[in-house]
Amino acid sequence: MQRFWALYQARRWGEARELLHPEACCQWWATGERFVGAAAVVHVNEIYPEGWRLHLLALHSLAPGQVLSLLRVDQEGRSFYANSYFQLRGGRITALDEYWSDVQAPPTWRQSGLPGRELLPPDRRAGLSLRLPEDG
To answer: How confident is the model at residue 119 (pLDDT cuts 50, 70, 90)?
Structure first.
């Protein structure tokens, strides 16, 4: 999965597609969308408006054939998070369920007077390396 995200970061779409099963399915639950087929999964990411940078913050094996990744995506002064649940079979990604959220101010009702409440500083964790070996 680390290589998959590194290929996305490098915009090496053809190589990323090779890691997907031809019938892979990606579901973006926050927006109620599904992309069916490796070509569709890669294409929607390839045409996503430019200017983004990925930070792979965590990678966990959950069970045989299941992996969870946590990404922070920085773009034009904003940050987004994606929890991505991968299903693998035969060394290829067969399914990807993604849960996206954006960083935003707390709602008004939580902005003052709550015991123990603190504001977090901006997340600047570098995360795991997304440098591909051939990048040097």
So the answer is: confident
The C-alpha atoms of residue 25 and residue 50 are separated, in whole angstroms, by 23
Q: Where are the domains of the chain?
A: 2-105
Structure tokens, 124: 């600047």
**Which amino acid type is present at position 40?**
A
- Other C-beta atoms within 10 Å of 6: how many? 21
Instruction: Kindly report whether the global pTM for this prediction surpasses the value 0.85.
Output: yes
Quick check: 79 and 122 in contact, CB under 8 A?
A: yes
* Chain segment 16-57, per-residue pLDDT in tens: 999 999 999 999 999 999 999 999 999 999 999 999 999 999
Residues 5, 41: Cα–Cα separation, whole Å: 13
Q: What is the assigned CATH class of domain 2-105?
A: alpha beta
